[in-house]
Amino acid sequence: MVALSSYQETVKLEGREYELGCNRYQTAVHPQGYRHLEYVQHTPYPIFGYKVGDALIRKHIFMPHGKNATVVSYDSDRDISLEVRPLIAFRDYHHTTRQNGAISSSPEIGPETLHYTPYDGEPTLHISHSSGLFIGDGFWYYDFEYEVERYRGLDAVEDLFSPGSLTFHLKAGTTISLIAAIGDPIPVTESESLRESEIERRQSSVTAAGFSDSFAQSLVRATDAYTVTRSGDLSTIIAGYPWFSDLGRDTFIALPGIALVTGRHDQAVAMLKAFAKACDQGMIPNRFPDHGETADYNSVDASLWFIHAVSRYLDYTSDFFGVEVDIWPTIKEIVTRFHDGTRYDIHADVDGLITAGEGNVQLTWMDAKVGDWTVTPRHGKPVEINALWYNALCVAEALATRFGDAEFESRAAGYAASVKEVFEETYWNKETNCLYDVVSPAGKDGAIRPNQILALSLPFRLVSVQRERQILDVITQELVTPRGLRSLAANHPSYAGHYGGDQYSRDWSYHQGMVWGWLIGPFVSAYVRVNGQTEDARIRAAAFVAPFQTHLYEAGVGQISEIFDGDAPHTPRGCYAQAWSVAEVLRCYTEDILGGCPEPWYTDKRSVALASV
Q1: φ and ψ at 108, to 5 degrees?
Q2: Residue whose C-alpha is closest to residue 12's, from 65, 78, 89
Q3: Looking at the chain, which residues constitute the CATH 1.50.10.10 domain(s)?
Q4: Could you give the C-alpha distances from 335 to 63, 306, 363, 391, 414, in angstroms and in order?
Q5: What is the model's pLDDT at position 201?
Q6: How many CA atoms within 13 Å lie on the side-chain side of 306?
Q7: Is the peptide bond before 44 cis (omega within 30 degrees of 0)?
């Protein structure tokens, strides 16, 4: 929910008024506070420096970790009068607010506090503040315009309500603060201790990760935005800001970069255990809804990414006891149900490969859908699903060996051997020298897509080294850009180079050429491995990651976007901060380029034999 949209600030100095805000309306930009903006810094948290007259005013904004609260503070090198006017939205984050008569016009006023419940049944917004004068003059601001929403074909106009204003006399060298909170109010007297604690916590997260490299440190700071706790102490990862919640598939793709590379191992195992408890019919939920409905089990790959994340957790921690007690039964359930059959006709075919698909449900990560229209239908045997399936089987076999489960070890080994025997022959496309994207009774899809990179990047190898090199060459030539990998080669008839417009237009292009930042991770891992993990390979791989350093200042400052246009200049689109984009850039940079990847916990005899071919 968006409760407090913004503060509108007016500075009074030497008989003049200066407005610091900046709003886009349908016919104007007003006020034009950007004209007074001297600088912005984003570490240790956002700080805005304004020059008004001969006064320098700083605005500090941070959110205390683990609290539904935002602290905003102001200081100045001159005595000034500062009016702060809250603008209230109180809406679901997917929607907009319009003027209405149901809203309460005034807050409850307490000592240095405002308590505001705009609608019956909604939570109360508490604003504690330094000593100041509140004037209740509630009225609406009309027709704010959101440019990005308009570009996306969504409702782009909003009205916001102001219940009144607070006026402070700010002395030079002092600070005034406001703490907006949902839930329990936080006394304004805690603002400084919260600030110091938050700075220390953020710095300690960078220190704990242990990287001296500045780019790695920037990415570690970025990861801090995504680890959250749901009700019931469920640890999870927000997929992206500003409009995604937590998604199972995204969580386990992102987990190595968000929680393992950064040293947050306790959070990692908490996430794994929580999702393990939610497993049903061998399926890890792909989404926990926001409003208490039943979880969505509509992903064929979330469960397989879960097993991969468990394996990576063991690479970093060797916590075999914890995995055996709390997670191993879930892994066995996933393998058994995926082989024998579960929802959406997910099962192992007679050749041992996983086939999936039922109706118009899209089960893979290429999951764009408009109404009943599935944009990229991939029913059958998607290439990355069977690469993940093979890796899950190999992990299960290795764990069964370690845990002394001879029966399951034999079963997993047999399943894995069947997949290994047919995978390369099934997916090799001799016309394009790479892998088919999907194999189904309707035929083999030869579209050049990035899904095949997982057959080269996942730990357990499936393809001969000679063909790995051929596949890598095709992907490098057809899909790699300075912002990640295209979701479809540009010479394909269905290729779309730009993302925008209404939902139909956006979802059509979503996986038809848009560049996905997270895919640079598996690409770099494959590139370094196929090229022998040499120092020269690492240096050359660094060139694929280097452009993300400038992107940190291109869209969401300090973050990496979800997607980019397929065509140059690859304008960032979608979420301006995406968990798996940040996570995979950090993971591949630290593991594959800086060489910080831990030794695997297993012995992969099949891949050793394959690599020698």
Answers
A1: -85, 130
A2: 78
A3: 210-611
A4: 41, 12, 17, 11, 12
A5: 96
A6: 32
A7: yes
Torsion of CA 181, 185, 188, 193, to 10 degrees: -80
Nearby residues of 93 by Cβ (< 8 Å), 6 or more positions away: 1, 2, 242, 243
Beta strands in 379-466 (DSSP E): 381-382, 428-429, 434-435, 438-440, 443-445
Determine the CATH number of domain 210-611: 1.50.10.10
Question: With the CA atoms of 23, 24, 28 and 31 taken in that order, what torsion angle do they form, in degrees rounded to the nearest 10?
Answer: 10
Looking up tokens 């959110």 gives: 63
Note the pLDDT of residue 26. Answer: 84
**What local confidence, expressed as pLDDT, does residue 213 receive?**
97
Cβ atoms of 606 and 394 within 8 Å: the answer is yes
Give me 561's structure tokens.
Answer: 């976007």
> What phi and psi values does residue 292 have, to the nearest 5 degrees?
85, 5
Give me the residues of the chain with pLDDT under 70, please.
Answer: 232, 289-293, 605-613
Domain at 2-199: CATH architecture: Distorted Sandwich (2.70)
Summarised one tens digit per residue, pLDDT across range 155-199 is: 999 999 999 999 999 999 999 999 999 999 999 999 999 999 999
Enter the DSSP assignment of 34: G
- pLDDT value for 606: 64
Residue that the structure tokens 């999936």 belong to: 356
DSSP for residue 550: H
Q: Are 429 and 446 in contact (CB under 8 A)?
A: yes
* 3-state SS, residue 280: strand
Whole-structure pTM value: 0.94
